[in-house]
Amino acid sequence: MKWNFEKFLVSREGAVLARFPSAVEPDSQELIEALEEALA
């Protein structure tokens, strides 16, 4: 990890699906698409 506030997308089983740097906003399209894909 390079800095605080990095974001991790974790599956229900506890596996890390994605990691986003602190520069990625919580409402960014990149993060939203990853969430939607994980929930599909």
Description:
By secondary structure, the chain is of the alpha+beta class. It has one domain (7-39). Helices cover 28% and strands 22% of the residues. It contains one helix and two strands; from the N terminus they run ββα. The chain has one helix at residues 29-39; strands at 7-10, 16-20. A two-stranded antiparallel ribbon has the order 1-2. β1 (7-10) and β2 (16-20) form a beta hairpin. The longest helix has 11 residues, at 29-39. The N and C termini lie far apart (28 Å). The mean pLDDT is 92.
The gist of it:
The protein is of the alpha+beta class and 40 residues long.
Which key features would you list for this structure?
40 residues; alpha+beta; two-stranded antiparallel sheet; 1 helix; 22% strand; flat
What is the secondary structure topology, with strand pairs?
Blueprint (H helix, E strand, L loop, with lengths): L6 E4 L5 E5 L8 H11 L1
Antiparallel strand pairs: 1-2
